[in-house]
Amino acid sequence: MSEEINGQAKKIEFKEEGKIKISELPLKIEVAGGSFLHIGAAPSPLTEKKGAIFKVDRTPVIPATSFKGALRHQLELLFAEKADEFAQLFNIPDDKKDLLKPCIPSPRPTKAEEELVNAGKYRKEHCEIKVNEEQINVGNNGICPVCYFMGAAGLMGFLRFSNFYPESEGDIIDQTNIRIDRKTGTAARGAKVEGEQVKPGTVFKGIISIVISEPILEQFGDARKIGNVVIDKWLEHWQETDKEKRAKALIEEILLPAIKNIKMLGGQKSRGAGKVNVEIDG
Ligand SMILES: [Zn+2]
Prior knowledge:
This protein has five helices and 14 strands. It has 282 residues and is α+β, with helices and mostly antiparallel strands. It has one domain. Strands 1, 2, 3, 8, 9, 10, 11 and 14 form an eight-stranded antiparallel sheet that branches. It has a two-stranded antiparallel ribbon with strand order 4-5. Zinc ion is lined by residues 102-103, 105, 127, 144, 146-147, 152.
């Protein structure tokens, strides 16, 4: 069985995998002209190189974790920027607008993060499900909207991410820091490669899977309950009763804009690295 809804950029197909209904969103990430990409590999005793990039079988890869970090950040910014619009969309009463604030997903926020909380942009508590004496406790505001998509401590989100692999193989690593012998004009003997980069124009492809429905997470777009405790309180007031319309609104009003707002990935930003364009592929 397959149903379709009209996505903003393309038709999103639902497919069933066992009892889980998933919608796949294929994405294309292009390294922007004039920039390069540097996602550092963990230092390993096997590589003598400094500044090696993350690779799988010698191919540069954008790991799912890097993309997830960038998407979480964009979702946070979107909820800050469109707080009023979303409050209206989700029928959130004026005195409950804190429900839409994202959390800082750590029990120990940094000083800079604490300032964001004090400025009222983020909620004070990070999202976590606590079970005390068989009582479920998710605080007054429940799980934040960003963790609804991305997951929180002890609770899965509705999105799954693949790694992103380059579209075509070839000469995509530019080892620019090889020292050139001033006399011969070729690479100096013993010159160490100090950094690897992925060239501008390189295209990576990957997939975000949206769990539309499954036995434990229930339905994407609904406020989840554990026992009789509603954990996604930000969705509790929404008047929309059509399940498909709810899922579609979350994809079109939140997920797609946040994806398109991703303009930076990886490290060495001070050297001009990391500028990317992200598009729905198809
Ligand atoms: Zn959260």
